[in-house]
């Protein structure tokens, strides 16, 4: 009898252990069940560690992209006769935008930057400010770094657009290469603030041995506008619809690719603010794709509407000097010879306050208003000259090739 009772006890205990194991397994397979229970007073709840979200889902994704695209990124060196030397840019905010200027050798200046190969025909996309304009008398070469070939290759500038700050070079494929490394172009319209991006470039130039440096960050904002004073043309150079990124863009990175985590170029690195942390700008690749064929086939983009002036915003100080009772409008800095504005009688120091009876509060608005016109259109300008209102009629022209 007693033996039977022991046997029943063993069976019941074993069954209890089995049930406990099943219940424990269920709880462990759903850790949220444990966390959902209230903690006893004086005890600490143990929660799951937060998961780490790697770009592309892998801790090696960025390294893989950089390794794959680096061969398509080239170092660009432009040699220019000293007579065509570009002016210096003393403002520390914008000097890095134009890349480093190395000491002249044999009467030459050297301009450096970055670019990337976009097709098997050997076309390279970069910034116009890196390579200058067509027929400027410069010689250009690029430095290729691939597993099969590492050396200098001569390049030809076949297309440039000053306003968009875009340029296309062309090289011949070295015989040592079966095919050229190519950076695929993505869709910049799909990028959002917070998306991961990768910048590859040649900071400070290849002479310092820092070629093909990789930096990582995110898209900080879209649709940014910045203006740079171009001393050579004595007018502001305005960039619109730029991508802002906190991926480090250093001196010499201009013209290099900004890449998404899928290994597609979504921007062209263009400018950096050295007075701020993590403020860089890139031209959206979709902007380049819209004009790429024109740059390759025609050497330039179609000329847009043009009246032929340089100008700046009317500041409170300018308004005070000119005796204006408001600080709106644009001050004409220069009327270019032979251009529509000169033919219409516009003069330097005129203040444009209206275009086609619409107010002109600043230069950005004025430029947008002009872009809405077409060559051949008539534009009626209201200007303030020596304290008096003057109305002038300008026949809109087409932007000349030297200003594209």
Summarize the structure in words:
The protein is elongated. With 404 residues, the protein is an alpha+beta fold. About 15% of the residues have low confidence. Helix content is 20%, strand content 35%. Strands 1-3-4-7-6-5 form a six-stranded antiparallel β-barrel. A six-stranded antiparallel beta barrel has the order 8-9-10-13-12-11. It has eight helices and 21 strands.
How would you briefly describe this protein structure?
The protein is an alpha+beta fold.
Separation of the first and last Cα atoms: 108 Å
Characterize the quaternary organization of these chains.
Answer: single chain
H/E element order: HHHEEEEHEEEEEEEEEHEEHEHEEHEEE
Please mark out the parts with pLDDT under 50 across 5 or more consecutive residues, or reply none: 15-51, 84-105
* Number of beta strands: 21
Work out the helix count.
8
Determine Rg (CA atoms, Å).
Answer: 31 Å
| Large-scale geometry | elongated
- Main sheet strand line-up: 1-3-4-7-6-5
Strand % is 25-35%
The helix content is 10-25%
SS-derived structural category: alpha+beta
Mean pLDDT: 79
Question: Could you give the topology of this structure?
Answer:
Blueprint: H1 2-29, H2 31-36, H3 61-69, E1 73-81, E2 101-105, E3 108-117, E4 123-126, H4 128-131, E5 139-145, E6 150-161, E7 166-170, E8 196-201, E9 213-230, E10 235-245, E11 257-259, E12 265-272, E13 280-284, H5 285-298, E14 305-306, E15 309-313, H6 316-322, E16 330-335, H7 340-343, E17 351-355, E18 358-359, H8 363-371, E19 378-385, E20 388-395, E21 397-398
Antiparallel strand pairs: 1-3, 1-5, 2-3, 3-4, 4-7, 5-6, 6-7, 8-9, 8-11, 9-10, 10-13, 11-12, 12-13, 14-21, 15-16, 16-17, 17-18, 17-19, 19-20
């Amino acid at each position: 009898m007693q033996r039977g009772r022991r046997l029943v006890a063993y069976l019941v205990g074993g069954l209890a252990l089995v049930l406990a194991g099943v219940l424990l397994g269920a709880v462990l397979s759903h850790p949220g069940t444990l966390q959902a229970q209230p903690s006893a007073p004086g005890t600490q709840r143990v929660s799951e560690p937060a998961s780490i979200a790697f770009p592309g889902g892998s801790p090696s994704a960025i390294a893989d992209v950089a390794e794959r695209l680096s061969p398509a990124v080239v170092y660009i060196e432009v040699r220019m006769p000293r007579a065509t030397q570009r002016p210096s840019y003393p403002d520390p905010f914008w000097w890095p935008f134009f890349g480093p200027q190395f000491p002249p050798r044999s009467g030459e200046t050297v301009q450096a930057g970055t670019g990337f190969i976009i097709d098997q025909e050997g076309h390279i996309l970069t910034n116009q400010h890196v390579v200058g304009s067509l027929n400027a008398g410069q010689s250009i070469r690029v430095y290729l770094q691939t597993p099969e070939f590492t050396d200098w290759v001569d390049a030809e500038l076949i297309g440039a657009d000053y306003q968009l700050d875009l340029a296309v070079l062309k090289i011949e494929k070295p015989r040592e290469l079966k095919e050229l490394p190519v950076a695929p172009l993505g869709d910049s319209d799909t990028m959002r603030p917070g998306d991961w991006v990768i910048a590859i470039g040649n900071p400070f130039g290849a002479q310092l041995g820092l070629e093909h440096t990789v930096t990582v960050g995110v898209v900080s904002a879209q649709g940014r506008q910045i203006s740079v004073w171009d001393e050579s043309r004595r007018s502001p150079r305005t960039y619109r619809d730029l991508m802002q990124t906190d991926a480090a863009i250093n001196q010499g990175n201009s013209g290099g690719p900004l890449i998404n985590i899928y290994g597609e170029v979504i921007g062209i690195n263009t400018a950096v603010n050295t007075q701020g942390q993590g403020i860089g700008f890139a031209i959206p690749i979709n902007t380049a794709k819209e004009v790429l064929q024109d740059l390759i086939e025609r050497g330039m983009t179609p000329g847009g509407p043009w009246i032929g002036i340089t100008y700046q915003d009317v500041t409170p100080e300018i308004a005070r000097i000119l005796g204006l009772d408001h600080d709106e409008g644009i001050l004409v800095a220069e009327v270019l010879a032979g251009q529509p504005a000169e033919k219409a009688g516009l003069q330097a120091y005129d203040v444009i306050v209206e275009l086609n009876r619409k107010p002109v509060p600043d230069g950005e608005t004025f430029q947008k208003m002009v872009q809405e016109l077409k060559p051949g259109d008539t534009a009626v300008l209201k200007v303030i000259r020596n304290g008096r209102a003057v109305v002038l009629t300008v026949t809109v022209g087409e932007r000349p090739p030297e200003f594209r």
